[in-house]
Amino acid sequence: MAHYLVKAKMVGGKINELRKKISSGYISSLKPFGRALEYSLVNAGYSFDGYVMWEEEDYCSPPLATERQAVLDHYFIDLSAERVREGMGWRMIMHYPNFWLLYEGLPRREGERPLTRREMPHQQISQNPSAEVYNKLADLLFSIPEVQEEASLISVPGARALWLSSEKVNPSPDSFMVEREFAHLHPPYDGSMHLMAPPNWVDEILGKGWGERHPLAGHAIPRNAVMVYAPRNEHEVKIVHNIVLLSYWRAKGERIPSPRSIG
Q: Which of 3, 134, 161, 228 could form a disulfide with 152 if both were Cys (CB 3.0 to 4.6 A apart)?
C-alpha cells in the first residue's frame, strides 16, 4: 500500500453533488477504497490558489486509478498525486483550513455560551477545557509554520502569543493585535483565545456561537478583535484550530474567502 498527497481543483458546480454523496454514505460504500476516500475528502484542506488537498492511501498502479474512475475524475480537474510516507501528507497540509468549513461555513456550537468576564481582563469563566483538550489545541497552534510562541504583549500573565515570523505580512492594521501578535491563547484555567478574525468571518464566528466581540473592539482596537471560546472536546479543537488558521493566513496577507463563497 502507498500513500499520496493529492492536489486537485473542483469542477465548477459539482461541489454540492459530491457533498451529498459523502453525506449519504455512497462514497464509503464503494469497495475496496470507499472508507479511506471518504475520510480523505472530509478532512481535505484548501489552499488559497484554489486547490483541494488530502492524503490518500492507494493500492493501484497507476496511482488512484480506481478512485479516479469511480469518483475523482467526476468532481476534480488538474489532479496530481505525490507519493509520501504515511501521515506525511496530512502533516504537510495541516496549516491549511478545512475545505468544507469554507464551503459550508462553521457548524453551530452546541449548548449554551460560556460565562465570560466582560471587564478587562476579558476572560472565560465557565466551560473551561480539560488539560488534555487545552494541550491538544496548543500543540496544533504552535506547530503552524512561521508561528513563534511568545509571551503576550497585551494579555494576562501566562497568555501564549502566536507571533508571526513571516517576511510577508498583511499591512492592514486590523490583522494584528500588537506588532506581530495576531492571536493569543489564554492560560489553562481559561482556555479561550483572542484573535484578529478576518472581517468577513466575524459574523459567522459570533452567529454560530463560537465567540464574542472583544469588549474594546471598535474602540481601542479594531472591530474584528474577537474572543473564541475554549474548546470542550476534540471536535471543537478542530473547529477552533480552523478559525485560528483563517486569522493566520490573513495575517500573512492572503485574501480569505467569505463563508460559503467558494465553489
A: 161
pLDDT tens track for 185-232: 999 999 999 999 999 999 999 999 999 999 999 888 999 999 999 999
Co-location of 125 and 66 in the same domain:
no
Grid cell 464551503 is found at 103
Please calculate the CA angle 66-92-181 and round it to the nearest 5 degrees: 145
Give every strand in the sheet of 2-10, ordered side by side.
Answer: 45-46, 52-58, 2-10, 76-84
Cβ distance 196 to 251 under 8 Å? yes
- Supply the CATH number for residue 96's domain: 3.30.70
Residue ranges making up the domain that contains 81? 2-104
Q: Mean pLDDT of all residues in the chain? A: 95
pTM metric for this prediction: 0.95
Q: Is the pLDDT of residue 166 over 90?
A: no
pLDDT band, very low/low/confident/very high, at 108 (cuts 50, 70, 90): very high
The structural domain count of the chain equals: 2
Three-state secondary structure call for residue 205: helix
Enumerate the H helices of 54-115 as residue ranges.
65-67, 73-75, 88-93, 99-104
> Rounded to 5, what percent of the chain is helix, strand, coil?
35, 25, 45
Kindly state whether residues 6 and 65 are assigned to the same domain: yes
* DSSP H stretches of helix in the chain: 15-23, 26-29, 34-42, 65-67, 73-75, 88-93, 99-104, 131-141, 202-207, 234-251
